[in-house]
From TrEMBL:
<keyword id="KW-0226">DNA condensation</keyword>
<dbReference type="InterPro" id="IPR000119">
    <property type="entry name" value="Hist_DNA-bd"/>
</dbReference>
<dbReference type="GO" id="GO:1990103">
    <property type="term" value="C:DnaA-HU complex"/>
</dbReference>
<comment type="similarity">
    <text>Belongs to the bacterial histone-like protein family.</text>
</comment>
<keyword id="KW-0238">DNA-binding</keyword>
<dbReference type="GO" id="GO:1990178">
    <property type="term" value="C:HU-DNA complex"/>
</dbReference>
<protein>
    <submittedName>
        <fullName>DNA-binding protein HU</fullName>
    </submittedName>
</protein>
<dbReference type="GO" id="GO:0003677">
    <property type="term" value="F:DNA binding"/>
</dbReference>
<dbReference type="GO" id="GO:0006270">
    <property type="term" value="P:DNA replication initiation"/>
</dbReference>
<dbReference type="InterPro" id="IPR020816">
    <property type="entry name" value="Histone-like_DNA-bd_CS"/>
</dbReference>
<dbReference type="GO" id="GO:0042802">
    <property type="term" value="F:identical protein binding"/>
</dbReference>
<comment type="function">
    <text>Histone-like DNA-binding protein which is capable of wrapping DNA to stabilize it, and thus to prevent its denaturation under extreme environmental conditions.</text>
</comment>
<dbReference type="GO" id="GO:0006351">
    <property type="term" value="P:DNA-templated transcription"/>
</dbReference>
<dbReference type="InterPro" id="IPR010992">
    <property type="entry name" value="IHF-like_DNA-bd_dom_sf"/>
</dbReference>
<dbReference type="GO" id="GO:0005829">
    <property type="term" value="C:cytosol"/>
</dbReference>
<dbReference type="GO" id="GO:0030527">
    <property type="term" value="F:structural constituent of chromatin"/>
</dbReference>
<dbReference type="Pfam" id="PF00216">
    <property type="entry name" value="Bac_DNA_binding"/>
</dbReference>
Length: 91
């Protein structure tokens, strides 16, 4: 399912117009993104938790040349499925 299809399902399920559904989805994504940027976790009970895992700087290798390179530290977004979602997917 892509964003356009998701918006259509939101509009049908919540009895919203396409424009209202787009605005709701965009606002949700923006709020989650901003919370993660601020170092917060976002927990949706029954669905799952979004959080950021820091990755330390490390040394890697270029597989083509074998040269050693430095990989910069970064923050990786992570989603952990909640119990209810897991149960829905594994009846």
């Amino acid at each position: 399912m892509n964003k356009k299809e998701l918006v259509a399902h939101i509009a049908d399920t919540a009895d919203l117009s396409q424009q209202e559904a787009i605005a709701a989805l965009n606002a949700t994504v923006e709020i989650i993104t901003n919370a993660l940027k601020d170092g917060e976790e976002v927990t949706l009970i029954g669905f799952g938790t979004f959080k950021v895992n820091p990755r330390a700087a490390r040394e890697g290798r270029n597989p083509k040349t074998g040269d050693t390179i430095q990989i910069a530290a970064s923050n990786a977004p992570v989603f952990k499925a909640g119990k209810a979602l897991k149960e829905e997917l594994n009846p």
